Automatic annotation (TrEMBL):
Top-level taxonomic group: Bacteria
Species this protein is from: Pseudomonas chlororaphis
Protein name: Phage tail protein
Any Pfam family hit: Phage_Mu_Gp48
Amino acid sequence: MAIAHTADEYLQQLRGLLPIGPAWSLEMAPEIDRILAGVAIEFSRLDARAVDLQNEMDPSGVSELVPDWEAIMGLPDPCLGLNPAFEDRRLAVRRRLVEVGGQSRAYFIDVALSQGYPNATISEHRAPRMGRSRFGTARFGTWLAQFMWTLNTGGRQRQGRRFGASYWGERFGSNPGDALECQIRQKTPAHTMVLFNYD
């Protein structure tokens, strides 16, 4: 990560670049030093903005260029709603760049974790098969059960909507699961059916 030079550092550099002679002497012409100090402040500001631009090129540190990254990546995700929070948009940019997808339990638990559910688990349902099922038990199941699974959210969101952590217009004290359900359903294999269990 690059570090911007300060105005004092630029002032020292500019003083060192002055030609030799009485017209450029800081003692005989002190106004030159004031001009150099003003130029040094501007150079330092430009250097800081260049460092900011370098940091914005990596989505892990993006803040100002979120709309540009979204345009390139086909975001904002409709799962986030009409007015998603800025942090959710930034997280979506990061995920879209590094996410590789998958159909494993770990992948879907990771999606739930990114939505603020740190204790999420997955329960897979089993179809009745000879040798594994018992007659007379409740909820014996159907053959379609082999394509069903349940995402257990594990309780309240890690960063639930509450005073001091929510933005204006958001439902206070609620933990909406719409974004989680939408993202999970987008990524589930087409032949499966997912159920959600909010503890």
